[in-house]
Amino acid sequence: MTNNSNRKLVPEAMDSLEKFKYEVANEVGVNLKNGYNGNISARDAGKIGGNMVKKMIQQAENSMINK
Question: Count of domains in the chain?
Fold first, then answer.
């Protein structure tokens, strides 16, 4: 049995996640183009992913405080 960790837990959020990815890439100075971006370095991909996770955790923490 193959475990695909790339599947989206909330498929309806895919468009928002794509938009979020481009926003974060712009903030950290990584130039993404529409479509395939396999030419970016692992360091740049890590910057994007790491900052996305950081912002999502921050948003979750803020929502816990504001309950």
Answer: 1
Tell me how crowded residue 48 is: count the other CB atoms within 10 A of its CB.
22
Report if residue 6 sits inside a domain: no
Give the amino acid at 23: E
User: Residue 48 gets which letter from DSSP?
Assistant: H
Q: What is the dihedral of CA 27, 36, 20, 3, to 10 degrees?
A: -130
- Full-model pTM: 0.80
User: How far is 30 from 41, CA to CA, in rounded Å?
Assistant: 10
pLDDT tens-place string over residues 14-31: 999 999 999 999 999 999
Domain span at 22: 11-65
Closest CA to 9 of 1, 17, 65: 17
